[in-house]
Amino acid sequence: PVFSGVNGSAIENFSCVIYHISFMNCTWQAGRDAPGDTQYFLYWQNSIYDDEMECELYIKDENGRNVGCRFQNVKIKTQKAYFLVNGSSKDSLIQFYDEYLELYETEILTSPLNISVDCTGDSMGCIVTWQAPLSHGEKKNCFQYEIGIQNK
Are 24 and 74 in contact (CB under 8 A)? Predict the structure, then answer.
């Protein structure tokens, strides 16, 4: 690709996180050498079979510049999703930023569900059971859990 535009005008520190199963926030910082009137626009494509979509709900900084996006009803369809952030300015050309992200790696899991503890009166101890948290991940056996036991 041709990287036209002012060096240092593309966004920096791009990251996305999926939470509560279907919500995703993506955030970034303005390029350190971007003109003050630079505005950024996020597009993403969940799979090669989907159309590219622009952000519908931008997160703005104190100057009204787009520095993030909120998405709803997100589904992880393929291993990698494509993200592109374009910029525009009256003063100069702005470099674009693009990245492929593995969304399942950005997911913040909810707590396990239906936790129960069954303790017997003898020295056998307790049995703790739970259901895996809701997740886009298909391989529930890949989850690792840690139990903190406090004696009182």
Answer: yes
C-alpha 129/C-alpha 131 separation (Å) is: 7
Instruction: List 19's β-bridge partners, or say none.
Output: 23
pLDDT tens digits for range 37-50: 999 999 999 877 78
User: How many CB atoms neighbour CB 131 within 10 A?
Assistant: 11
3-class DSSP state for residue 45?
A: strand
CATH architecture of the region 12-105: Sandwich (2.60)
pLDDT at 16: 94
Write down the pTM of the prediction.
0.78
Instruction: Give the model confidence (pLDDT) of 59-85 as tens digits.
Output: 999 989 999 999 998 877 777 889 999
Non-local (6+) Cβ contacts of 38 within 8 A are 9, 30, 31, 65, 87, 88, 89, 94
